[in-house]
Specification:
392 residues, mainly alpha, Growth Hormone, Chain: A
Length: 392
């Protein structure tokens, strides 16, 4: 990737970037609230539901492995546009109904999300180098708002349009809007040099950042896929469970913004690595197993914690990278490998629930993943940088 290029109309560019970010989670967060209806109408088993929540995360990781090719052939700016078009196509495919379009559309949308996921931190590093912390927080916050909109609106939209296929497909519209908004910027840069992956694969710091990204992502995808069903298991109607899930997701936005902005100002990020995951684990236990009167504050705290973990993970990618090319390489590594391992989280969570016909073992697994994220995040939070740029 090229570096040091000032983008014209930074405010408009930032708004277009936010529109892209808004569309990076509804494809994932809309499935959980509708999972009960999907299982009832299709006969999907609990294991099949676990596979449905796991498949997009695997595809996110696979897409990240292709980003180097995308950078070389298209350039980062056109790569983001291609990602948005693919997201819209995948979401539209899910509207055909049935299990095959659902699974294939989810996989396709995840590929598009993976492209944009990797490229956005590199573009922030390139175009907003002097304000990378606030910009990382802003686009992560917008991403969380998109996730919250998907989780909260899924059931009401399903009631309005008369079925889950149309309720899932309607999210193709904002993805198309984002593609149109980004189209003027897709012409800014042509194909560019891709980062050298081998340099990062030999760097321990890159692996610690990757581990933290994967472990904290696992927590988010567990909540996307299983929190509504867990709350329904506690006696909440589907609509109420979806609204609680939306409350969790909505509070990810301030968590991401505040954590990313403040953590970027610190000398290193190790205190944040301990505090934010600890808040996440405690809030999850209260929401899942605590008093009914504490559900609302626990949901807010859980959302703040999960959003903070995600904002912190993206901040570590930007802060630990020496330049824009290194940010692209570290982002591809952290999200590609990280999402592959993150996919095991919702799968293991679902299998633990099915094996015990309860949520105790699954809840213990969630806390264990949180503890592992702290262990990985401590060395990732130290004030060092990695370089992945090709040398002539």
């Amino acid at each position: 990737m090229t570096g040091g290029r000032a983008a014209p109309g930074r405010l408009v560019l930032g708004l277009a970037l936010m529109l892209v970010a808004f569309n990076l989670r509804p494809a994932l967060s809309t499935v959980g609230p509708l999972l009960g209806q999907i299982r009832e109408t299709t006969g999907l088993s609990a294991a099949g539901a676990a596979a449905l929540t796991t498949l997009p995360v695997i595809c996110l990781g696979l897409a990240c492995a292709l980003v180097g090719w995308v950078i070389r052939r298209l350039g980062p700016d056109l790569g983001v546009l291609a990602g948005m078009v693919i997201v819209a196509a995948g979401l539209g495919l899910r509207g055909l109904g049935g299990l095959w379009p659902l699974f294939l559309g989810s996989a396709l949308a995840a590929v598009g999300i993976g492209f944009a996921n990797v490229l956005l931190p590199a573009l922030v590093k390139r175009d907003f180098a002097r304000s990378s912390g606030p910009m990382t927080g802003l686009y992560t916050m917008t991403l969380c708002l998109g996730a919250a909109a998907g989780a909260g609106a899924a059931v009401p939209v399903e009631h309005a349009v008369g079925g889950w296929p149309a309720a899932l497909a309607v999210w193709a519209l904002p993805a198309l809007v984002a593609a149109l908004a980004w189209a003027p910027y897709a012409r800014r840069g042509g194909p560019a040099r891709a980062p050298e992956a081998g340099r990062l694969l030999r760097d321990p710091l890159a692996w610690w950042v990757t581990a933290f990204m994967g472990l904290q992502s696992s927590l988010a995808y567990i909540l996307f896929g299983w929190l509504p069903l867990l709350l329904q298991g506690r006696g909440l109607p589907a609509l109420d469970a979806g609204l609680y899930a939306s409350l969790v997701t909505l509070n990810q936005a301030p968590g991401a913004l505040i954590t990313a902005t403040l953590a970027a100002r610190a000398r290193d990020q190790r205190r944040w690595v301990v505090g934010i995951p600890a808040l996440t684990a405690a809030a999850f236990l209260v929401l899942a197993f605590g008093s009914e009167t504490l559900r609302i504050p626990a949901a807010c705290a859980l959302g703040f914690g999960v959003g903070g973990c995600f904002g912190l993970a993206l901040s570590l990618i930007v802060l630990r990278a020496a330049d824009a090319a290194s940010a692209a390489g570290l982002s591809a590594m952290a999200q590609g490998i990280g999402y592959f391992f993150a996919s095991l989280g919702p799968l293991a969570f679902g299998l633990a629930h099915e094996a015990t016909d309860g949520w105790g073992l699954a809840g213990l697994l969630f806390v264990g993943i949180t503890a592992a994220a702290v262990v990985a995040g401590l060395p990732a939070g130290r004030a060092r940088t990695v370089s992945a740029a090709r040398r002539d």
